[in-house]
């Protein structure tokens, strides 16, 4: 683990069901705008708030994510499976103890900023590592006026200070406005079902 000593590592947790260009877009922006050395895609065994019904097997999600990433600083990781964690608060505790000499930053899209207060021990997460939130279609306004943004408004950095985020002691977070990327795993799954030869075509009502 000393390999990562002194490195600034962005952690993009996700279902990646499937991985898509939106994940690549925010990862590249994170490297550039936050001055990160690496981004790890933490492919979640099972998001605690999502149904397991539509979730592809972890090995398939990992394999597809690995096939999509062609960047030397972006790494697809199954560490949550190996640690046996699904709650982010637990994952972060374990990673912080495994990587005491690295700077860890949690990365997420604005949809998760809005949903964040429903996460297990969410205030512990805010207190444990700096967070960077990326603009996303339909979600940013609600996220920025929501419970997390309001409660932790004094810990928010201006976007001009984003490069300093990795050096800050939590709680610290930044919202990164950027060219929004429209990709969504839900839409990809819906399109796959619609294009499946087994799907029943539904004729719109006249
Ligand atoms: N187009 C995007 N723009 C900004 N952030 C994104 C985008 N797509 C995904 N993210 C963020 O990447 C992380 C992992 O996303 P996830 O794997 O859930 O993809 P998703 O497209 O949001 O999936 P789903 O539609 O199934 O919820 C989350 O923090 C999510 O907010
Ligand atoms: O810890 C929680 O309670 C929690 C609740 C919802 C989501 N998460 C994490 O948030 C990350 C993004 O999830 P997703 O499904 O939106 O890609 C992923 O790492 C999940 O494990 C974590």
From TrEMBL:
Q: What pathway or pathways are given for this protein in its record?
A: Cofactor biosynthesis; NAD(+) biosynthesis; deamido-NAD(+) from nicotinate D-ribonucleotide: step 1/1
Q: Which GO terms describe its biological process?
A: NAD+ biosynthetic process
Mind telling me which Gene3D superfamilies this protein's record contains?
HUPs (3.40.50.620)
**A GO molecular-function annotation:** nicotinate-nucleotide adenylyltransferase activity
Q: What EC identifiers does the entry list?
A: 2.7.7.18
Q: What InterPro entries is this protein classified in?
A: Cyt_trans-like, NadD/NMNAT, Rossmann-like_a/b/a_fold
Q: Which reaction(s) does the protein catalyse, per the Swiss-Prot or TrEMBL entry?
A: nicotinate beta-D-ribonucleotide + ATP + H(+) = deamido-NAD(+) + diphosphate
Q: Which residues form the signal peptide?
A: none
Query: Which terms are listed as keywords in the entry?
Result: ATP-binding, NAD, Nucleotide-binding, Nucleotidyltransferase, Pyridine nucleotide biosynthesis, Transferase
Q: What region holds the Cytidyltransferase-like domain?
A: 11-190
Similarity remark: Belongs to the NadD family.
**What's the stated role of this polypeptide?**
Catalyzes the reversible adenylation of nicotinate mononucleotide (NaMN) to nicotinic acid adenine dinucleotide (NaAD).
**HAMAP family assigned:** NaMN_adenylyltr
What is the protein's name according to its record?
Probable nicotinate-nucleotide adenylyltransferase
Q: Which organism is it from?
A: Iodidimonas gelatinilytica
């Amino acid at each position: 683990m000393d390999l990562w000593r002194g490195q600034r590592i962005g952690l993009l947790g996700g279902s990646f069901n499937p991985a898509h260009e939106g994940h690549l877009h925010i990862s590249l922006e994170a490297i550039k705008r936050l001055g990160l050395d690496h981004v790890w895609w933490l492919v979640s065994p099972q998001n605690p708030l999502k149904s397991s019904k539509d979730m592809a097997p972890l090995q398939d999600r990992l394999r597809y994510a690995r096939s999509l990433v062609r960047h030397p600083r972006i790494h697809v990781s199954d560490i949550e499976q190996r640690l046996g964690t699904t709650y982010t608060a637990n994952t972060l505790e374990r990673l912080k103890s495994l990587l005491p000499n690295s700077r860890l930053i949690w990365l997420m899209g604005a949809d998760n900023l809005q949903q964040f207060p429903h996460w297990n021990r969410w205030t512990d997460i805010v207190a444990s590592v700096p967070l960077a939130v990326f603009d996303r279609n339909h979600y940013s306004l609600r996220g920025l006026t929501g419970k997390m943004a309001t409660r932790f408004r004094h810990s928010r950095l201006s976007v001009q200070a984003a490069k300093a985020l990795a050096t800050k002691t939590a709680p610290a977070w930044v919202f990164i406005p950027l060219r929004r990327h429209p990709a969504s795993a839900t839409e990809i799954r819906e399109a796959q079902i619609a294009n499946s030869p087994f799907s029943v075509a539904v004729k719109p009502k006249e």
